Amino acid sequence: RCTLTGLANRTLLIDRLGHAIDMANRTQGRLAVLHVDLDRFKRVNESLGHDIGDALLIQTGERLSDGVRRCDTVGRLGGDEFLVILERVAGSDEAAMVAGRLLGALRRLTNVDGHRVHITASVGIALYPTDGTDEHALMRMADAAMQAAKADGGDGFVFYTREMTERAMARLRLEASLRAATERRDFELAYQPKIDAATGALTGFEALLRWRLDGMPVSPMEFIPVAEDTGLILDIGAWVLEEACRTASRWALDHGPLPIAVNVSARQLADSSFADLVESTLRRNGTAPELLEIEITETVIMKNVLHHLPTLNRLRGLGVRIAIDDFGTGYSSLAYLRQLPVDVLKIDRSFVTDLPHAPDIASTVIALAQRLKLSTVAEGVETLEQRRWLAEAGCDRLQGYLISRPVSADAAEAMVMA
Ligand code: C2E
Ligand code: CA
Ligand code: CA
Ligand code: CA
What we know:
The chain has about 425 residues and is an alpha/beta fold. Helices cover about 50% and strands about 20% of the residues. The longest helix has 24 residues. The model has no long low-confidence stretch (mean pLDDT about 95). The protein binds ligand C2E and calcium ion (3 copies).
């Protein structure tokens, strides 16, 4: 058996896979490449408060080696990732059986250096010659399949499919286009009005990012995650802030204060200079801080509440209003909520959709906001019944297709001047 644990052996493993392919090619045999990546490795370590990392990785390597035959190869690719090369497999069934056995062996690894652990992994499988015939392609395919296993929630194995490559290529193309668009600042903001629930008067807007690729609009749900993963959101977000502040100042001259809310992602909020950026953007555009509202989703705030607190406090100190977006979908603890420098709770659209027949969550959020002296905005208001219910329940502001879809800056300006 060829066990290459203890080190990051990527090059050695690629070599070894190359040889195995030569051999299989000569004997018309089949191979399976398994990419094994531990789930939650960092968290297992942190939760113990001890670094058992090395011991855990060594024992993982041993378990994997014990689970395969002498002719097979087990090696560490680096980090908590391993490669298993199964030589002379009959086909996918046998590869699946081995993958299942390896996952079982890891689950039974419950004690490392006297610490109780729970180890699971995500396994991606690529087959020679079915999926690919060169070692680099097979490694990439096993990796892509592993990512799919991870996306499925981990603790399982997934076989490589063609669609994974197609999806990965589409994703790379999207990334490249988004990078180019970011350099050219080739975006627009759409503005969706918010109105006073009681009077119907215009109270402000939410700025929503719009991007066209080859003339076709791409949904923010599709490109914002890519912008976050690549870090492009930092540049894009700075542009959004600039544009929103400039616009809010201009409209304020003609109309009086109409705050514009911008969405801020986790990556932006985690950036240590975010509050500085907001401050300098306000100053550069001569924008009164009350004209800017920052929307942050509940999940993002609550996931790392202590880490974000200083930035939130600084933003609040500048006089910027802070809204918790998609409120009700996460798990806010009341204790935290009381200490957070927030001004607005935005009732998530999913609860507004339920109105008026299932009003429990909307009622609870409104009551909670009133107790904490926060204001409420309902998003996704689409029907008159919803609007009436919300106004009666004491929700402060409304936003949704019933009032208006997000519109161009010019159309929004017309609403401002009306
Ligand atoms: P969000 O912040 O929850 O924004 C509300 C979304 O609901 C918007 O989708 C809006 O067009 C849509 N919407 C508004 N009213 C209604 C309604 O009555 N019915 C329905 N069905 N939908 C309604 P959009 O513009 O596609 O944006 C999707 C998400 O993308 C936003 O969700 C936000 O999380 C993100 N996003 C948009 N612009 C930005 C941005 O500039 N920066 C960041 N970080 N995220 C952004
Ligand atoms: Ca991992
Ligand atoms: Ca929002
Ligand atoms: Ca929302």
